[in-house]
Amino acid sequence: MECTVRWTGLSGMTFLAETGSGHVVAMDGAPEGGGRNLAPRPMEVVLLGTGGCTAYDVVVILRKSGQDVRGCEVSLKSERAETDPKVFTKVHFHFTVSGRNLKANVVERAIKLSHDKYCSASIMMEKTAEITHSFEIVDDAAPAAI
């Protein structure tokens, strides 16, 4: 895996990252740090990447487990150290998983497998942060109204 990060110029603190797969992500700093608030902060990108990594795992595991999963949302709340390096010290993941007749024990197992075995990002983050998670299930068993 590769990427390139380039500062866009002398004014401001906006950076463009190009991934090895050819996608571009903008990042910017806070105004008090010279940024112009044009894009997410780099540490926000770390957090959202971790959310994407674990949500991906949960959906894959649920599908492989024969669950009729229709949606998966994960909300992350974090705390960071007050002094440099300002690493994440706590991260809570709250999953909202929707589908038809989802089994709570299977959803809980999928989340645990992601955090303990598959999600490289959350496993790395766990080196500095206390990781917790919760979940809720939304049953989409009722037919949609016309």
TrEMBL record:
Pfam family, any one: OsmC
Signal peptide: none
Xref: InterPro entries: KH_dom-like_a/b, OsmC/Ohr_fam, OsmC/Ohrsf
Gene3D superfamilies associated with the record: 2.20.25.10, 3.30.300.20
Top-rank taxon, per record: Bacteria
Protein name per the record: OsmC-like protein
Organism, scientific name: Herminiimonas arsenicoxydans
